[in-house]
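Q: Sequence in, structure out?
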Amino acid sequence: MEIALLKLLLAHVLGDFVLQPDAWVAEKERIKLKSPKLYLHVAIHMALIFVVFMSFTVWPLALLIGLLHGIIDAVKLLFQKASTKRIWFFADQALHIVVILGCWNYFYQPNMNLGFLQSNQFWLLLLGALFLTTPAAVLIRVIIAKWIPTGGGTASLQNAGKFIGILERLLIYLFVCTNHFEAVGFLLAAKSIFRFGDLKDAHDIKLTEYVLIGTLLSFGTALLVAMAVLHIEI
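A: Exactly. Output:
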């Protein structure tokens, strides 16, 4: 990755997260375009570009990125609602990254090497990772459906189990593909510690067995997919 792109990304992270207090965010959301903090925030982003490049010759780049950053933030403030703040946050950050990549490409015209897109191994790794998300979650849910405990249970976050399973499978996939098998044991131990209190207090052997089956299926699926990806020759 070229140094210019790294510097632009560093300036963005500093400006949007490190140097933007929560009080500024709250004020912008309350009074929107009337907030002086919005324009100060944009000015900080422009100043950071000068700082990371240690030069004033990048003023066209700083001006363009600052202007587009301000427009994106203004659109988000005008259209986001309490129920859509999470969506707008990710959309806002995605647009900022697109702007940075576009400006970097326009001003520096880098010779980007996309040869990895022609690699069979890349597409195989991507397929394995994708399978371990929703497809594996559906497969495991179907397998253990007949053992779902009935009766009153403790309330949990919506879809929390699904996303925990996806994250743990992707972590195992990453660990195995990078030859860090010891981290898989650490992850299993950590999950066991967090689950121990819930299962101990539940006094329900069916719930305990259900959780163990689901965990072992999740870990086993991730390990099998990772090992298959590593040993398939295409």
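The chain has a mean pLDDT of 89.
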